[in-house]
Design a protein that fits this description.
The structure holds 2 protein chains of 2 kinds. In chain A, 76% of the residues lie in helices and 0% in strands. Chain A is built from 12 helices and no strands. Chain A is globular, with a radius of gyration of 24 Å. In chain B, helix 4 packs across helix 11. In chain B, 70% of the residues lie in helices and 0% in strands. Chain B is mainly α. Chain B is built from 13 helices and no strands. Classes of the chains: A mainly alpha, B mainly alpha. Chains A and B meet through helix 1, helix 5, helix 6, helix 9 and helix 10 of A and helix 5, helix 6, helix 11, helix 12 and helix 13 of B. Chain A: This is Peptide ABC transporter permease. Chain A: It is a multi-pass membrane protein.
Chain lengths: 327, 302
Amino acid sequence: MAGFLFRRLLNYVVLIVVATSLAYMLAAGALNPRANYEGRNPPIPPAVIDARLTELNLNDRTPMFERYLTWAGGVVRGDFGKMVTGGSVNEDLARRIGVTLRLITIGLVLGSVTGVLVGAYAAVRQYGAFDRVSTGASFFVLAIPTVVLANMLIIAAVWVNGLLPQPIVYVSGEFSAGLTGGFWARAVDRIQHLILPTISLSLGLIAIYSRYQRNMMLDVLGADFIRTAMAKGLRRRTALIKHALRTALIPAVTYFAFTFGSLLVGTTFTEKIFGWHGMGEQLVNSIYTNDVNSVAAISCFAAFAVLVASLASDVLHAVLDPRVRVG
Amino acid sequence: MSIADEEHAEELAGVGRIGTPSRLRVVAGRFFRSGQGRIGFALLTAMFLLAFAGPHLSKWGYTDKDFTAFLAPPSAEHWWGTLQTGADVYAVTLRGMQKSLIVGLLAAVVGTGLAAVVGAFAGYFLGWTDRTLMWVTDLLLVLPAFLILAIMSPLFAEGQWLLFVLMLALFLWMVTSKIVRSMTISLKEREFIHAARFMGVHPMKIIFRHVIPNLSSLLIVDATLNVSAAILTETSLSYFGFGIQPPDVSMGSLIADGARTAVYAPWTFWFCAGLLVVTVLAVNLVGDSLRDAFDPTAKRNR
């Protein structure tokens, strides 16, 4: 078992290294930081541009492999290099990582728990009104891209706020700047800012998980072991929750690793549209500003996050399925 | 009896077998019996008609600008109103839809084809081929598609949208290829594959003539669902300016423009957002019904 885990971890590390290097090479090849300095008025002398780009390790006159080695040498020591503005990528991302993780964690927990519950309930009451409505709604939600959903939420929020004497939800940023007041006032303010991004992030997850969980649950509900559990005297509710839901959760947990990547992308859109200063926003901005080092650092984070998610889904799988632990 | 005679006899016998329905007819029958399939198909046909025949009904082209009407509400002159630039919303939306549909279809077909070939090769040959191909699959699963496509966006400028389609397809095939691989492994042990192998048929021929056609139902369903995935990815990329580049338009770039003026000029946002949602919904409905139609054991529970 230890050997298996070790090999798996080693494979993950190799994947992260290759993925990040590939992202760096692509970014260094496709993005053009020189364009940031050219065409200015008054024009900057080429020698000055060269010196500045070399200082940032972004000079396209240096062979790409050499730039890669310089960058990789820094990364090994834990330094992701400098942004085009001259600041340290590490400091910038350290500030942003918390914002993104807060948003993802809240959206993920809310989305997956609600989705699983909705799907399980729909399966138990198959063909009932709830089942029909939730199936129809999830089909509809899955057809709406995150960028459209986020904008629809903003339009709706602006409309609702216009009807009320005082806005109840805010459409931009993480908190109001310069807000005075105690802990509660600040907490309420943060929640008002959090509502719309969370909905935009978790609605798609709820739709995916509810459909998936419903199908899994339907497969399990007809199984012999549920009949046995109820035959030996368990109440229906207990049998459904302890036996059916637990068994039906196993495939959903495996599915979790697959959806995590798309969740990261969804977070990017949500952050950018709602003006949260997280990793996702920085990703879009860094491509606009030809910031190669930031792009590479964010790809490293994304690859790492996807692999942690797949590791977590392995662990959850083992917790839920005794066969994995014993076998 | 020579081989030609045998074929002739089979042809003769075939005349008497007309009564047995073909697989296509069975699947089509099941597909159109479900309400979901009928609605999806009708919607999708309507969307295609609108996107490809619709532009001929209006006198405005997608590059035309009406300098007498900026941000005008829908009227007899401009059926769906105009944008801030004076462009006709009806014309540009349909142009964007054409682009999104073509990009989605092409990317889905290429992506599924890639999934079939990679999965079948890995599952059929196993060993090193399998390990290498599956490692590449894992690598692409780890790399966020949006990020890579966004980085490469400067390369898609100046009408290089076919390259964009290829890159989009490159990130659509991983999960399916894993399914194809595991199905190939079990298919490999079936008698007809054994027979072909012992007769000395070339492995390539076995893969393309026997393995992949036997997975066709999975692949058709997958290709359909990939169309909606590709359209969604394309829209999101174009929204941020990383996909289809101006002067060409796509649903994503139109939605990005519309969202800025949506509060006071709703027609700039809702027509193209609505059409996009309906298109993706129709594709998903068709894909879902196809899956049910191909799989006779599937529960008719929807």
